[in-house]
From TrEMBL:
InterPro entries tied to this protein: Glyco_trans_1
Keyword annotations of the record: Transferase
Annotated source species: Rhodophyticola porphyridii
Region (Disordered): 1-69
The Glycosyl transferase family domain, residue ranges: 677-800
Cleaved signal peptide residues: none
Gene Ontology MF terms: glycosyltransferase activity
UniProt feature coiled coil, ranges: none
Protein's recorded name: Glycosyltransferase family 1 protein
Biased composition range(s): Basic and acidic residues: 32-45
Length: 875
């Protein structure tokens, strides 16, 4: 980086106010210290005989200053000097580097200075070396590169000022301090730009969205709905689905109360929009127009949109200072919305109307003849971002650099391109023959590459298109041809990827039953001979990750069949936020559900699909009466295990819980996210205590996870009752942690009995895994587990039908029911298992044989392949 040869320092130990400046100081430290020492000696002489030495503190005429010191020189990015307290042998003042009135660097003046000590000043530990980094250097430019050093113990005392050597900017030189500062500020954007450049030449296919129109349909999909007869006011399907899925139907009667539609839209914009964290929530074109409509206030010159008004009313400070008659204040408000609030809500692509974008892109009249003029938006952004305040908007080079930085930032914020003047965009990408464009030169300097990087205007347009923005039209690709807004519309798919037979989509990474089912389906599919692609998709699934063995994942591809291992309430999420791999494919949803009828938020997902798979006849009974699509029971397998050392697992568990060697161990295991009402630990506790009253060797282990993350009041009350029962019985042990699958298998293998007094199960992994480990199973004789549980393979517990009430489970609707296990019968089954080892052995062997023959991966693969081949023949 080029500098003038030396800077200049002024002052040597001067009070900040009321003291005249002294002469210039050179860069040699020792003479300065010695001269200061001589000055101190001469302080004791008559005033008439005192000599004022260059660079020394003049002899005081009335009293000595509290400190003596000097700024010596600037070298290698540090400002060197010293300071001592007057008449103090030892002193370590705290000093600060100031630019204007802002203290940037603080440091204790304690570095060794033998020259100062030899001059008879202090003990020699009084030096400072204040670093001046690029940010400080850039800020100093605004003050003519002048800095000062002050004693922070007495901030009015200024040791001196110093004019830093002025950098020679050198345009877009990679060694320029301004480029270096921008490189540090925009490291994330540079990384993202490099990734986009690596992808830009790869051919892609843009979505057809042939099956996505249903997300915006206003027909009546949900039964029992009092949907408004007027389709103009009825919520479109996706918004109605969200209303039911997140239980907002309790808060908003959008069908019966017109104003509740606005209240719901406000929540959808400000609540649901922030939940989605950067994803583009579906919005139909008429809702977008409604939210962007001018909201006129009589007597006010300017108008805001309805969406802006809602947020301004939410923000009391904005409302208090609102002045729509002042054009500058109006532009400030538009900037706040476009730069801060709309991106925070992830609506900068659709709720900053063109009329407002045009105003923000406009160049102030007084600056219209500038080269690289700053638009109304850019002026405010540069003032607002402290990291860019080192730039001087009156300088052409600084405006050019800011424009380039803003274009680079568009890699992460494409909307910024809406506010860059069109002439500036053309100019930075223009080439003169073989000479690289301004942007290419800038990017080469920023990335420190030896060779130029080719980024033509067309290449940049293709690159930014991958980020969902069309540079030519200044439109976001998330807007469909009909004007609806859909995240999937902006997601391309690699066109050169091979089309596979089946694409398996699901929460592979999640440590949950659904995650396990997805991983098992991948294992099953690997045995079919079909070409399969696996994609991880776990949006909104709260289960932890990192506890399961996950195979190779891939990007989304085109497939003849998509198998979505998602429950019905998650199917719309895949269509809304995943790439469109669905339009030219046969789409199957694989559902697990525990209640006897679908939830109201299931119906949109069901309609988006061509077929529904379930793992049990119970699942067939849930969905087949409610849809015209085929509902097929393809089954599910257990996880194949390597050899399990049951004796070692038992020893480890006995040692871990400090159990007696002859303990009879019953185990109940469940995820607290699966609702304790359904898993019914209270029933297990009651049955265990009833069955094993007075039997000290009987112990119960309750294995759960995520208990500490459950905040539902009803579930908390259940846990409170369970805690009281657990505390009163030393035979009961609780393990509340997420275990690896191998550790969970060892826990089951170490147990003498597995209990599931569930009220309903979609499948029942815990039970079938116990059977595969030859662990006896006591379970409710109801729901999905009955595909592999019978009187010959398990100890079945009687039950009564029980109707659910709101809060019993997620997505409860009127008339749904599940089982209420009979505690007396459960206790009888437990004691029968405990007291009859011969029957226990017989059922264990029968259960093991059944699951090995009918529910192995090979057995289920035959069922999968048979159905998939039937479908493939029709495609």
């Amino acid at each position: 980086m080029g500098f003038e040869k030396r800077g200049a320092a002024n002052g040597s130990g001067t009070p900040k106010q009321g003291t005249p400046e002294l002469g210039s100081i050179g860069s040699v430290a020792v003479p300065r210290a010695r001269e200061a020492s001589r000055a101190r000696e001469e302080d004791r002489m008559p005033v008439s005989s005192v000599r004022s030495l260059p660079g020394a503190t003049p002899a005081p005429t009335e009293r000595q200053p509290p400190y003596s010191g000097n700024i010596d020189y600037f070298s290698a990015g540090k400002l060197h000097g010293w300071v001592v307290r007057t008449n103090a042998r030892e002193s370590r003042p705290m000093v600060g580097l100031f630019i204007g009135d802002r203290a940037l660097i603080r440091q204790l003046a304690s570095k060794p200075r033998s020259d100062v000590k030899e001059a008879g000043i202090g003990d020699g530990y009084c030096g400072f070396e204040l670093p001046v980094d690029d940010a400080a250097y850039a800020l100093a430019k605004r003050f003519g590169y002048q800095v000062s050093v002050r004693v922070l113990d007495d901030p009015q005392f200024e040791i001196g000022t110093y004019t830093l050597p002025k950098p020679l900017f050198g345009g877009l030189d990679r060694n320029s301090p301004m480029i270096d500062h921008c490189r540090m500020l925009l490291s994330d954007e540079l990384t993202l730009m490099a990734k986009l450049l690596a992808r830009v030449d790869r051919p892609v296919t843009w979505p057809k969205l042939g099956k996505h129109a249903l997300l915006f349909d206003k027909g009546r999909l949900i039964p029992e709905s009092d949907a408004a007869p007027d389709t103009d006011t009825r919520l479109p399907a996706y918004l109605d689905y969200v209303k039911h899925r997140l239980h907002k139907n309790r808060d908003f009667d959008t069908d019966g109360t017109p104003e509740d539609r606005d209240h719901f839209l406000h929540w959808y914009l400000t609540g649901y929009g922030t939940i989605r964290r950067g994803l583009r929530t579906p919005l139909p074109h008429d809702v977008i127009d409604y939210l962007n409509a001018p909201f006129v206030i009589g007597g006010q010159k300017h108008t805001l949109t309805r969406a802006m008004w809602w947020r301004i009313v939410d923000d009391g400070t904005k409302l208090k200072s609102l002045d729509l008659s002042d054009s500058a204040a109006f532009l400030d408000l538009l900037y706040w919305w476009a730069e801060k609030e709309a991106p925070r809500l992830s609506v900068e692509d659709c709720l900053v109307p063109a009329r407002h974008a045009d105003l923000l892109r406009m160049v102030p009249t007084a600056r219209k003849d500038d080269a690289f003029p700053l638009s109304n938006f850019m002026v405010r952004l540069q003032e607002d971002r402290s990291s860019f305040q080192f730039l001087d908007p009156t300088e052409e080079e600084d405006r050019k650099l800011f424009t380039l930085c803003m274009v680079l930032c568009s890699a992460s914020r494409p909307d910024l391109l809406r506010y860059v003047p069109a002439g500036s965009l053309r100019r930075i990408f223009a080439r003169q023959g073989e000479t690289p464009s301004i942007f290419e030169t800038f990017y080469q300097a920023m990335t420190l590459q030896d060779d130029p990087v080719s980024i033509s205007h067309d290449m940049f347009a293709a690159l930014i298109r991958l980020r969902g923005y069309d540079l030519q039209s200044h439109q976001f690709l998330a807007r469909t041809e009909t004007g609806d807004r859909l995240h999937a519309a902006a997601l391309p798919i690699a066109a050169d990827a091979e089309r596979v037979d089946v694409q398996l989509i699901g929460p592979f990474e999640k440590a949950s039953g659904l995650g396990q089912a997805t991983r098992l389906s991948a294992e099953i599919m690997s045995r079919t001979g079909l070409r399969v692609n696996c994609v991880d998709f776990g949006l909104d699934n709260p289960a932890p990750e990192g506890f399961s063995k996950v195979g190779k994942m891939s990007d989304w591809k085109k497939a003849r069949i998509n198998l979505l291992h998602l429950n019905a309430e998650s199917i719309p999420l895949a269509f809304a936020y995943g790439p469109d791999v669905f339009s030219d494919s046969y789409n199957i949803g694989y559902f697990y559900w525990e209640l006897d009828t679908p939830a109201l938020c299931h119906y949109l997902g069901m309609e988006l699909l061509d077929e529904i798979w379930v793992s049990t006849e119970f699942g067939v009974s849930i969905y087949r009466p409610e849809t015209a699509q085929p509902v097929v029971n393809v089954g599910m397998c257990f996880e194949e295990l390597s050899a399990v050392d049951k004796d070692a697992a038992r020893r480890n568990l006995v040692q871990q819980l400090q159990l007696p060697d002859d303990a009879f161990l019953s185990l109940v295991a469940f995820d607290s996210f699966s609702f304790v009402q359904r898993k019914n630990p209270l029933g297990v506790l009651a049955a265990f205590q009833k069955a094993f009253r007075g039997i000290d060797t009987a112990h119960l282990i309750i294995k759960t996870q995520n208990r500490d993350h459950v905040s539902d009041p009803m579930q908390e009350r259940i846990w409170k009752r369970a805690d009281a029962m657990i505390a009163a019985d030393p035979r009961i042990h609780v393990i509340n942690e997420t275990l690896t699958y191998e550790a969970l298998v060892d826990l089951k293998a170490a147990s003498d009995c597995y209990i599931s007094l569930h009220k309903s199960e979609g499948w029942g992994f815990g039970m079938i895994e116990a059977m595969n480990l030859k662990v006896p199973v006591v379970c409710t004789g109801y729901s999905g587990n009955m595909d592999f549980c019978s009187e010959q393979t398990a100890w079945l517990v009687d039950y009564k039908d029980s109707y659910l009430v709101e809060g019993d489970y997620i997505f409860v609707r009127a008339g749904q029911k599940w089982a209420d296990p009979d505690i007396d019968d459960a206790a009888a089954q437990l004691i029968a298992l405990y007291r009859n080892p011969r029957e226990r052995a017989a059922k264990v062997e029968a259960a093991f044989a059944n699951v090995r023959q009918n529910f192995s991966a090979d057995a289920i693969a035959r069922r999968y392949e048979a159905r998939l081949q039937e479908i493939l023949k029709t495609l």
